[in-house]
Amino acid sequence: MVMGVVFLTWTIAGLLGNSTLLCLYSYTLLTGQKVRPTDPIHHHLVFANNLVVLSRGIPQTMAGFGWKNFLDDSGCKVVLYFYRVARGVSLNTTCLLSGFQFTKLCTRSSWRRISTRFLKCLGFYGSLFWILQLLVNGYVPVRVIGPRHKQNVTVHMRYRYCSSVPPQPLGTVLHVVLFFSIDVLCLVFMIWASVSIVLVLHRHKKRVRHIHNHISFQKSDHEARATCTILTLVSMFVSFYCLSTIFTVCIILNKLPRLWLIDMFVFLDAGFSVLSPFVLISRDTRVTQVFYICPPKMFL
């Protein structure tokens, strides 16, 4: 019951935050009003996060409240497949955001040209990430089985509501190459881009320390706010990813893992998707202006 309430609260918070941003970015992209360069990729990010919360939070909440066998084989395959796809897109888009911000802050002409090309192709890259993850995670439906038939198959890792079959040696190698290599490359790139951004900002502050131009100050303030947002997102993603990986290893090493290990793994695995929209909301002035424009009586 306690875990059911925790995951229910976790799921509702994630859905509210991501749905709010999804409506905002959809409106701005459709109407063309106050569109920012990163809105297309943010749109892909919050949609992927919403899908992660739906495919992870709702089944885990139902299992936490004691519901059993509410998913058959097909349901397990669909839910876990779309979860893996959405999680991969969330990783790729966060990586793209950090790379775009680095190229935007760099003063070299070559990086400036790359930043200009990024602006024209952000929406295309987001669509490309979905196609890539749909192909890479094609093995998931093959390995996942429903709880009603797990007694007939040797179970490798047991979830609260689904199970998975132990992969063959060749399948394990392909899984590591296709999945973990992409994750590691994205994480390494995000960390490198984040460190580079911090160094660029540090050098920039030294150069403009004695400049008191109001226009340049406002411009640097907007860039600093956007950079702080992306650095926060990257730090959150890396932290949650590393913690969830530790629990993943613990679950794999235990043939019959305890339920609290599974619950902590799911909680941490969906942590970025639940908390990241609130970081974006707090940094986006278009959202905060709504509370100043609307009279207080509307919220009573």
Tertiary shape? globular
Characterize the biggest β-sheet: 3 strands, antiparallel
Order of helices and strands: HHHHHEEEHHHHH
By secondary-structure content and strand pairing, the structural class works out as: mainly alpha
CATH homology superfamily name: Rhodopsin 7-helix transmembrane proteins
Uncertain regions: pLDDT < 50 for 5+ in a row?
A: 150-156, 214-219, 295-300
CATH architecture: Up-down Bundle
List the topology elements.
Blueprint: H1 2-31, H2 39-64, H3 73-105, H4 109-136, H5 140-143, E1 144-145, E2 157-158, E3 163-164, H6 169-207, H7 214-253, H8 259-269, H9 271-283, H10 285-293
Antiparallel strand pairs: 1-3, 2-3
Provide an overview of this structure:
The model is unreliable at 150-156, 214-219 and 295-300 (pLDDT under 50). This protein has a single domain, classed as Rhodopsin 7-helix transmembrane proteins (Rhopdopsin 7-helix transmembrane proteins, Up-down Bundle), CATH 1.20.1070. It has 10 helices and 3 strands; from the N terminus they run αααααβββααααα. By secondary structure, it is mainly α. β2 (157-158) and β3 (163-164) form a beta hairpin. 78% of the residues lie in helices and 2% in strands. The radius of gyration is 21 Å and the shape is globular.
A few lines on this structure:
The protein is mainly alpha-helical and 300 residues long.
Question: Main traits of this protein?
Answer:
single chain, 300 residues, mainly alpha, Rhopdopsin 7-helix transmembrane proteins, three-stranded antiparallel β-sheet, 2% strand
